[in-house]
Every structure is written in C-alpha cells, then in structure tokens.
Design goal:
Largest sheet of chain A: 7 strands, mixed
Strand content of chain B: over 45%
Strand order of the largest sheet of chain B: 2-10-9-4-5-6
Distance between the termini of chain A: 40 Å
Number of strands of chain A: 13
Radius of gyration of chain A: 14 Å
Number of helices of chain A: 0
Number of helices of chain B: 0
Helix content of chain A: under 10%
Radius of gyration of chain B: 13 Å
Shape of chain B: globular
Shape of chain A: globular
Structural class of chain B: mainly beta
Distance between the termini of chain B: 34 Å
Oligomer: heterodimer
Strand content of chain A: over 45%
Helix content of chain B: under 10%
Structural class of chain A: mainly beta
Order of helices and strands of chain B: EEEEEEEEEE
C-alpha cells in the first residue's frame, strides 16, 4: 500500500523556520516526482512546490519562492520542505503528494496519492 | 501565472441529480487539466487527469471534458458520498495552480 506521512509541523513565531518531512512507503520513491500543497484554514488548495524524481529540478509558487526550499533523499524515501522567514499567512495544513506517473517520458505533476497533512501555525 | 476560475462556488443538488462544474483558465492549458475531490478533514483525491481520463478506481459517473480554456466536470447521478468540494488544477506551465473550488452540497 502506498503511504505518505508528513511530519514537522507545529507552532512557530513569525520570522521563524520549520522543516517538514514526507516519509513514503509502498512505491519506488526514486521513480516519481513529488509535490507540496497547502490549505489555509477554511480556504482552498494552494500548489507550493514540486521536485523531480532525481531532485535536480524544482519549481515553486511565487508566494514561497526564495523562502521555501524543497529537497529529497531517495536513499531515505523522504522529501523535505525547508521553510524560512515564516509569515502568518503561511498558517495552513501542508500536504505532500506523489506524482501520477509519466506522460511521453515527462512527469505529469498531477497528484494521485496524498498524505494526511501536517499543520503549521505561524503566530506570536 | 494561470488563473483557474471555478463556477459556481456552490452547487445545491439532491442525490440522483446531475452535477455540472466549470473551470475556466485565463489562458489555454490545452488538455492539461485535472480535477480533485476533497471531503471535510480529508486529503484531496484525484478524479480526472488530462481533461477526460478517469484516475484509477474512479466511478464512471464522473466524467470530464474540455480543452483550451473551458473545462467541465460532470457527475451523472449524485451519490451521497459525492457531496464535497471539487478543485481543478493545470499542468501546462509553472507554477501549477488550482482553481478556487466548487462545493457540491445537498
């Protein structure tokens, strides 16, 4: 069974940092791109970042570019999101998600399996 | 950044009725659009990818169509478990974006 488990969320002061982890099992992690998505309380989904299967390609939403960094360790079956300079508007549930697969040799960057999410609260 | 506009914001229907949800893109996304379903307290679930392909395990009552800037998700006959929020998402360029969602309520 494919499983994704986020961790590392919590309460942090504005300007602080957190590192989220996404540990996966049940599939060949190194073969799939991965994505982070967040959802602020009572709001819709916000796409944040994606990373290729090898980790050599990353992309970000403008709202987090320069503050958040996505990475992965394929030997540990884990993806990370380093979040710096956190703001109140970063308060959300953060989901990691597995890519659907490949289309004509390129990742879809659609998300077919999701974790349950980890909550991040930025507040003084 | 491509803006996806979903309409209506809320759709009030009864079980057995047909639901038609719209997603309009601010510029062409070709057929590179997906639909997700999210129930309260749960992670989203992929329903449709590349406009019209059902994801694994998705019932045939869910169908998608469209290309360019206008897309539709249709639920042919609503089951009680279909009452949820639905989001569209494109993959034509970076950054990917989601629409604001349509809530299908009883």
């Amino acid at each position: 069974e494919v499983q994704l488990l986020e961790s590392g969320g919590g309460l942090v002061q504005p300007g602080g940092s957190l590192r989220l982890s996404c540990a996966v099992s049940g599939f060949t992690f190194s073969s799939f791109a991965m994505t982070w998505v967040r959802q602020a309380p009572g709001k819709g989904l916000e796409w944040l970042s994606a990373i290729s299967s090898s980790g050599d390609k990353t992309n970000y939403a403008d709202s987090v570019k320069g503050r958040f960094t996505v990475s992965r360790d394929n030997s540990k079956n884990t993806m990370y999101m380093q979040m710096n300079s956190l703001r109140a508007e970063d308060t959300a549930v953060y989901y990691c998600a597995k890519d659907l697969g490949y289309s004509f040799g390129q990742p879809y960057y659609y998300m077919d399996v999701w974790g349950k999410g980890t909550k991040v609260t930025v507040s003084s | 950044e491509i803006v996806l506009t979903q309409s209506p914001a809320t759709l009030s229907l009864s079980p057995g009725e047909r639901a038609t949800l719209s997603c309009r893109a601010s510029q062409s996304v070709s057929s590179y659009l997906a639909w997700y379903q999210q129930k309260p307290g749960q992670a989203p679930r992929l329903l449709i990818y590349d406009a019209s392909n059902r994801a694994t395990g998705i019932p045939a009552r869910f169908s998608g169509r469209g290309s360019g800037t206008d897309f539709t998700l249709t639920i042919s006959s609503l089951e009680p478990e279909d009452f949820a929020v639905y989001y569209c998402q494109h993959r034509i360029n970076w950054p990917r974006t989601f629409g604001g969602g349509t809530k299908v309520e009883i």
